[in-house]
Specification:
The complex is a heterodimer of chains A (372) and B (598).
Chain A: H1 2-24, H2 28-39, E1 41-45, H3 51-66, E2 71-75, H4 80-93, E3 101-104, H5 106-114, E4 118-119, H6 124-131, H7 133-136, H8 139-142, E5 151-163, E6 189-191, H9 207-218, E7 223-224, H10 227-235, E8 241-245, H11 246-255, E9 262-264, E10 270-280, H12 286-295, H13 299-308, H14 320-332, E11 336-337, H15 343-351, H16 355-370
Parallel strand pairs in A: 1-2, 6-7, 6-8, 10-11
Antiparallel strand pairs in A: 3-10, 4-10, 5-8, 5-9, 5-10
Helix pairs in contact in A: 2-12, 3-13, 4-5, 9-16
Chain B: H1 2-25, H2 28-52, H3 66-72, H4 77-108, H5 114-124, H6 129-140, H7 146-155, H8 167-192, H9 195-203, H10 208-237, H11 254-262, H12 273-299, H13 323-349, H14 359-362, H15 373-377, H16 380-410, H17 416-428, H18 431-448, H19 458-482, H20 486-494, H21 499-510, H22 512-528, H23 531-536, H24 544-553, H25 557-581
Helix pairs in contact in B: 2-12, 2-16, 2-17, 2-18, 3-12, 4-8, 4-10, 5-13, 5-25, 6-13, 8-10, 8-19, 8-22, 9-10, 10-12, 10-19, 11-12, 12-17, 13-25, 16-17, 16-19, 16-22, 17-19, 18-19, 19-22, 20-21, 24-25
The chains are: A alpha/beta (372), B mainly alpha (598).
Chain lengths: 372, 598
């Protein structure tokens, strides 16, 4: 017991010393910390799955790491699309942003970059190397091409097939996304009210072929439901399976290991989406914001994110949740795909922003909801 | 010369003071505040109209009819309209079926335990709609519904007889949810009915049924009509139930189409507020049409004046042998709308995650989530903001409603009908549309008047709620003021009271039960309102309703249920306290006893 207490005291002292050492130097990081300290506040968004308790633990750890002692106002309400849309409106009207640092997925991040609402961290590589050496080792994933210097990945959302084993055995599940259109699955599954994941089919299929695949799902008239509602309906046996993020699996299993929920993978492709922190242009507390965006990529932050949000960071690959997912992916022999895997993938994503791409997105939306 | 000037000055000063006194002592105070509220409503409505012609943000792009082309050109347009009307009418039918008899039984009869029953009705409002819908899915889902299974077993059916994922399912649940709204809308007028008219009918030999049909119902007609319009307008703008029961797929209605416009299906941050604005205006159209009939009934307002200066005294209707069927009817409604959702909430709150009832699930029951309530509540700031939101919104809603109703009912101004129509507009516009208009207004305020504490503060949420709830509260205050005859106010004026004194000292106490109902109901609705709050919250103006939403969205229905149970118990307790403090809302005898007789 005594040894444990001593170990804890030693760890605390060592950690405190690190914070002091970081702040006392004369390098860019020390200047950033000092500037952040003078700003004395940080307003940010945190993913809703983190919860109040997890949000507090996260921001406390951030402050402790850099020896900061200021107010952090965190918004955990989610609504990423709306928050980024609001940020675009603020940018266009020229008023100071509500949040200093925000988190979101590629489509909303790129929209805000395009609107001029995100500030690039100029010497981000040098700073990342000091703040998060582990993320620096995989810097092309931590701040991938297309958003390099703007967005800093703190998590990935991996889309899997979630099912109720009491309602359907694993061997009867669809093997590929294409199989979802089999009439035997009528009434068995739901689709979400968005096409963010569906559009990622372009990473594996020809666009006309993929449109036909999506039409085949729509023809079965599946229910359109948000993930949370769909998962609950699946767990009471009202639905058999659905596509959703691994978060729901880990979250329910953590609370109740016997919960009737299991996950499987589509063998043709497994979509993953990076979730990145971005610093708002004109932020009231820009230095604290930059510091947080960079720190969010660390293993330290990842541990807290995994503990509460139960969400992976595939680029770091170190947390327990990430390791479990990677192991399951390995067992299923499935490779996750993302818009930021390579230049070719990114170009496909950017094509969706063209007039032709927008029409295609609309066609996918119609196919998914109506089968037309 | 100086003296002349002095006299002239003092004379003009006296004149000015006199006219100022006239202004503030007449109806002008009411007119001023009523039009101030109307001006804000009109401003925001104009912003929504503007948005409907804009493809981007209202202040950055030109006018375009593209949003209208997108909505009217949709092959599903007529399906959406017909489904919406069907759901609206179905919801109204259910809420009338339960709401009107409940209002009569709990306000005008000697049914026992009415305070408790009324508290239960009020408490239903803060139960999240999605939990109620989940409860009914557990009962009436064709796949797993317990009730379906029971009926199938008894009658040896091969297919489930009920499918909750349908338009009737949506109407049924919404009808149960909105019954308390109907109840509270007509409770005030119901309590204020002059029983002398009923007694007179009884004296001439009319039986109880005839008295209800021919005496009580016609006197309540303006309140009932106001309630029907309100319920219809609420029903066609409600998302939470339809969103869970096929509204986003086959059972599409206007509210779900609005949701899809602001939650882009194509997966970008480009939110189609313009399209949402067009759908919002489509919801407004039938509402305005319904208002026309409402105003027709108001024209006959004097016929419904039942509180007079001549021996007004409400009296309970003795139920006699009908007492037990009456209690059963109340319990039947409470079972469907209160006990069932409460049981589902309780069940969910005791489990690690939602499951159908079974022996295995029973073994998982624990109070784990209740031990973490302090985290679920979100901290001191959230509690303070919520308190400010609920108290501030209710007080402002009551104040502006009274002012508006005064103008509408007690003045002969030519614009009074216009004021009433404008006060109903916010209800015709879905909350999300209003919230976006407020968001834009907030951004503009921050741009042009950065010193005004509005954008990202709790005041922007209060503003949204006040405007959104005015229509509801004005239905109550309108109906209440209609029932107070002009002679009472005239008597006060003859005795030398100023206009505003008669408003505060005579009229307000007379309609106090209606005001207390309106305040209480507004507080509950504001407390649970989440769609506007979600759009308007920033880092420093979080409220409890959004905490609940966050829990649900992150897949923690069980924690959300535990928090709901705690909030229901606290709210129920508060309602009981308010009932005691304000002279027992549940007791018609608490109405002020008027002097004089005749």
């Amino acid at each position: 017991m005594k040894a444990k207490i001593l170990a804890v005291l030693f760890a605390v002292a060592a950690f405190g010393n690190t914070a002091v050492a970081l702040a006392q130097g004369d390098g860019p990081l020390a200047r950033l910390i000092e500037a952040a300290r003078r700003e004395d506040q940080l307003d940010l968004t945190i993913t809703s799955s983190q919860g109040e308790k997890g949000g507090k633990e996260l921001t406390d750890a951030f402050k402790k790491r850099f020896g900061l002692n200021f107010t952090v106002n965190a918004d955990l309400s989610g609504q990423e699309s709306q928050k980024f849309n609001q940020a675009v409106a603020e940018t266009k009207s020229g008023i100071p942003p509500t949040f200093d640092v925000m988190q979101g997925e590629p489509p909303v991040v790129l929209d805000l970059i395009q609107a001029g609402g995100i500030e690039r961290i100029e010497n981000w590589e040098a700073l990342l190397q000091t703040v998060s050496p582990e993320a620096y080792k995989v810097k092309e994933k931590a701040s991938p091409v297309g958003v390099a210097g703007y967005g800093f990945v703190w998590a990935n959302r991996v889309t899997v097939l979630m099912y109720n084993p009491k309602a359907i055995p694993q061997q009867e599940l669809p093997k590929t996304w294409k199989d979802l259109g089999n009439p035997k699955y009528r009434g068995a599954f739901t689709i979400p009210p968005w096409t963010t994941i569906t559009l990622m089919g372009l990473l594996n299929y020809d666009k006309d072929e993929w449109l036909e695949v999506v039409r085949s799902w729509g023809k079965l008239k599946p229910q359109v439901l948000h993930y949370a509602a769909a998962v609950e309906r699946m767990m009471i046996g009202d639905l058999k399976f659905l596509e959703t993020n691994t978060h729901y699996y880990f979250n329910h299993k953590a609370k109740d290991p016997s919960a009737p929920i299991e996950m499987s993978f589509f063998s043709d492709f497994t979509p993953t989406r990076e979730v990145a922190y971005v610093v708002r242009k004109g932020a009231k507390h820009p230095n604290a914001a930059k510091l947080f965006a960079l720190w969010a990529t660390t293993e330290e932050a990842n541990r807290i994110f995994e503990k509460y949000s139960v969400i992976e960071n595939l680029s770091l690959g170190t947390g327990p949740v990430t390791r479990k997912t990677l192991e399951k992916l390995r067992q299923a022999n499935v490779k996750p795909v993302s818009w930021f895997d390579n230049q070719q993938s990114l170009e496909k994503f950017l094509w969706l922003g063209t007039e032709e791409g927008r029409k295609y997105s609309q066609a996918i939306a119609r196919a998914q909801r109506e089968g037309k | 010369m100086e003296k002349v000037a002095d006299v002239s000055l003092s004379s003009s000063g006296v004149q000015a003071a006199k006219s100022l006194r006239e202004i503030i002592s007449g109806n002008s105070i009411a007119v001023f505040f009523a039009w101030a509220a109307c001006a804000v409503i009109l401003l925001l409505t104009t912003l929504i109209l503007w948005m409907s012609f804009s493809r981007g943000l209202p202040f950055e792009s030109g006018f375009s009819p593209d949003n209208y082309a997108e909505v009217f050109g949709s092959e599903h347009f007529w399906t959406v309209v017909l489904n919406t009307v069907g759901v609206g009418l179905g919801t109204v039918a259910i809420s009338i079926f339960f709401g009107v008899p409940l209002a009569w039984l709990l306000n005008r009869t000697d049914i026992p335990m009415r305070s408790l029953f009324i508290t239960m009705l009020a408490v239903t409002v803060i139960m999240p709609g999605l939990v109620k819908a989940m409860g009914w899915i557990m009962l009436l889902s064709p796949q797993v519904g317990l009730l379906n299974r029971l009926v199938m077993g008894i009658f040896r059916l091969r297919e489930a007889p009920f499918d909750i994922n349908s338009l009737w399912g949506i109407s049924f649940i919404q009808g149960l949810m909105l019954t308390p709204s109907m109840f509270f809308l007509i409770s005030g007028p119901m309590r204020s009915l002059d029983s002398a008219l009923e007694e007179a009918a009884e004296v001439v030999g009319a039986n109880r049924l005839k008295i209800i049909v021919w005496i009580t119902s016609p006197m309540l007609w303006p309140a009932i009509l106001g309630g029907i319009i309100y319920i219809f307008m609420t029903a066609i703008a409600m998302f939470e139930v339809a969103g869970l029961l096929g509204g986003l797929s086959e059972n599409r209605i206007l509210a779900t189409e609005i949701f899809l416009a602001v939650q882009p299906f194509e997966g970008s941050s480009e939110i189609k507020y313009g399209v949402a604005g067009v759908y919002g205006l489509l919801i407004m159209a039938p509402s305005l049409f319904a208002l026309f009939f409402y105003f027709q009934s108001l024209k006959q307002a004097h016929r419904y004046a039942v509180i007079t200066g001549k021996g007004y005294k409400p009296k309970d209707f003795p139920l006699g042998s009908l007492r037990y069927p009456a209690i059963l009817f109340v319990l039947f409604y409470l079972a469907l709308a209160v006990f069932l959702p409460f049981a589902v909430l309780l069940w969910a709150s005791l489990l690690p995650s939602l499951r159908m009832p079974s022996v295995e699930a029973l073994s998982l029951v624990s109070f784990k989530w209740y031990s973490e309530i302090h985290y679920l509540l979100g901290g001191f700031d959230v509690m303070r903001n919520t308190l400010l939101l609920v108290v501030g919104s209710s007080a402002l809603v009551l104040f502006f409603s009274f002012m508006i109703s005064w103008v509408v009912v007690r003045t002969k101004l030519r614009t009074r009908r216009l004021v009433d129509t404008i006060s109903m507009l916010p209800h015709a516009i879905p909350g999300i549309g209003f919230a976006f208009a407020l968001l834009i207004a907030g951004i503009m305020t921050a741009k042009w008047f950065p010193w005004v504490p509005f954008y990202n503060t709790v005041w922007i949420i209060i503003a949204g709620n006040v405007l959104n709830r005015l229509s509801y509260a004005t239905r109550i205050t309108n109906a209440a003021l209609i029932q107070v005859q002009q002679e009472l106010e005239d008597a006060a004026l003859i005795c030398g009271a100023r206009k505003w004194v008669s408003m505060l000292r005579v009229m307000m106490p007379l309609i106090r039960p209606s005001l207390v109902f309106a305040g209480l109901w507004t507080a509950l609705l504001v407390f649970r309102e989440v769609s506007m709050a979600l759009l308007l919250i920033g880092p420093k103006n979080k409220v409890l309703a959004t905490q609940l939403w966050i829990l649900w969205r992150q897949g923690d229905l069980s924690q959300a249920s535990a928090l709901s149970i705690v909030l229901i118990l606290i709210t129920g307790l508060l309602i009981l306290v308010v009932q005691r403090a304000t002279g027992k809302i549940g007791e018609p005898r608490s109405l002020p006893q008027l002097g004089g007789g005749g």
